[in-house]
Amino acid sequence: MIAGAALITVALVTASAFAYMGERRGVYTTYGANSETTNSYGGFLGGMMRRGYSYDYGTTAPQTYSGQYGWRGCRVWNNYGNPTGPVQGPTITLDTALSTAKNYLASLNNPDLAIDEVEEYSQNFYVLFYEKSTGIGAFEMIVDKYTGEIYPEMGPNMMWNTKYGMMSGGMMGWTTGAQNGPLTVTVEQAKTYSQQFLDANYPGTTIGSVDKFYGYYHVDVLQAGNTYGMLSVNGYTGQVWYHTWHGTFIQEAEL
């Protein structure tokens, strides 16, 4: 019963995290020969900015659901806290976020892991960790702009990561049978699917650099050559998941 209760609690927390998805239609639109055309997550639970969408390509209008703010505005995984409204007040600096990320890295006691970059957005700080021995992305973290707390990024980082994500029994959780083995979607295919998604949903944006992770690709999104946001492409199905929870890009620090 204790284990079952724990799983139920985690499931509810995970569902709350996905309340962020769906700021625009097609947030979790699928592409590729092995993909289905129906959103699995997307805006199903509402959006962080406004009404969310559960969008199917080929339909004339998406179905809408009432959007809601995530936990404490953008703080989804802070000690599994309770939902509250948006937060205002002083925020930490990029240097402080970087220091937090470095302290977290040191606590892992894994000499093969390193920080690639820290990006500041209007809603949070994004941190990319990678493996030095392979050059492959390991996992992605969020630093809260108001408290400095660090926690796993929601979305592909948790659901698609076959080594460190919660679906793999890795750093973030429990085992539920994720796909393993070499990615069946190539880098070029991931680029194609990403640009198709952007053309349909964020006109005027283009893909930037592509980083390989265990189970998926991380793709930078540019506008007029400048950082605009990011998305992920599933390495087995070609599904595209846009990261709507960051907000507007401000600045970054690369290590």
Query: Which oligomerization state do the chains in this entry correspond to?
Result: single chain
Biggest sheet strand line-up: 6-5-4-3-11
Radius of gyration: 17 Å
Q: Strand count, sense and closure of the main sheet?
A: 5 strands, antiparallel
Number of strands: 11
* Category by helix and strand content: alpha+beta
Query: Which percent bin holds the helix content?
Result: 10-25%
Strand content: 25-35%
Mean pLDDT: 73
Order of helices and strands: HEEHEEEEHHEEEEE
Q: Count of helices?
A: 4
Catalogue the unreliable spans.
Answer: 1-27, 32-85, 172-177
Please give the alpha-carbon distance between the first and last residues: 45 Å
Instruction: Estimate nothing, just give the exact number of structural domains.
Output: 1
Bulk shape: globular
Question: Any overview of this molecule?
Answer:
The protein is globular. The strands form three sheets. The protein has a five-stranded antiparallel sheet with strand order 6-5-4-3-11, with helices on one face. A four-stranded antiparallel sheet has the order 7-8-9-10, with helices on one face. A two-stranded antiparallel sheet has the order 1-2. The protein has 255 residues and is of the alpha+beta class. A hairpin with a 5-residue loop joins β9 (226-234) and β10 (240-242). The termini are far apart. It contains four helices and eleven strands, in the order αββαββββααβββββ. The protein has one domain (2-254).
